């Protein structure tokens, strides 16, 4: 509602909080994600009874208990599939998925990529701490090669999934990234995710203080966060650094981080971010930037494009078929049809 230029919010973050005591390990990044979700929902101003939060299994999947909305704590890896059913059955609901890297990229990998491929209008919050937390510290599908854990005492001998790569490979239309300690960016990308018509994937780099503490310190620590991350904003130059003197440029087919004013590079050379272009080539390059390669990690909304949505197309198909056929009921459609037989 807006009166004489003043906007009024009908709901506050507290309206989306349940009465249940929040129970995660002290210092867990999940607390920040939960708080940001409450704030994002308040900004979106969607009625709690018009919202459903679905989860699978894992630390992240406790989140529905802390929401004053409809919720479903489902089974391991199946959150995306159940959320798809919820959205198709009731297209008016705002449907969210709370899942972890172990839940959605291991046993739930198939459901994850097909939800993205179908572009169902759901919002997937992917908590990525690169570890199995609830089952006490085994390596996960996003753990780095050589990672030492209870299930890999001599280091893993496999390469990890990169969530952005899976999302883009499944022809995803929305991908964003945030760090659990950067709450402003978290809220911003969650709001944009909810406004996107299709599957939105928000990867939140989250810290597990018990089994993988400090896994994201290279980009989350305030000492060097500004130099090791770039927050992408639609239509703006890709500038970063403590003094905002660094930028991302394109050299040949590759991205390069440069200091503006040095070696002939000027502000004009710095790329302007466009998350809305259908061509995902540059967006994927941005999503896969790594400080090990001398590039900052990209945060913010990286891809946000239009595309056909499974739930909308499904509803339209039902309406079109109903218009073409005179049969309006189960009895008329099946029981009175010619292809009926009796088994004795």
Global outline: globular
CATH topology of the domain at 2-215: Rossmann fold
Strand content: 15-25%
Tell me the number of strands: 13
> Architecture of the domain at 2-215, according to CATH?
3-Layer(aba) Sandwich
The first-level CATH class name of the domain at 2-215:
Alpha Beta
User: Which range best describes the helical content: under 10%, 10-25%, 25-40%, 40-55%, 55-70% or over 70%?
Assistant: 25-40%
Q: Which value, in Å, is the CA radius of gyration?
A: 22 Å
In DSSP terms (H or I, runs of 4 or more residues), the helix count works out at: 11
Structural class comes to alpha/beta
Could you give the order of strands across the largest sheet?
4-3-5-6-8-7-13-9
Taking the alpha carbons of the first and last residues, their distance comes to: 64 Å
Largest sheet: 8 strands, mixed
Order of helices and strands: EEHEEHEHHEHEHEHHEEEEHEHH
CATH H-level homologous superfamily name of the domain at 2-215: Thiamin diphosphate (ThDP)-binding fold, Pyr/PP domains
Primary descriptors:
344 residues, alpha/beta, Rossmann fold, 8-stranded mixed sheet, 3-stranded antiparallel sheet, 11 helices
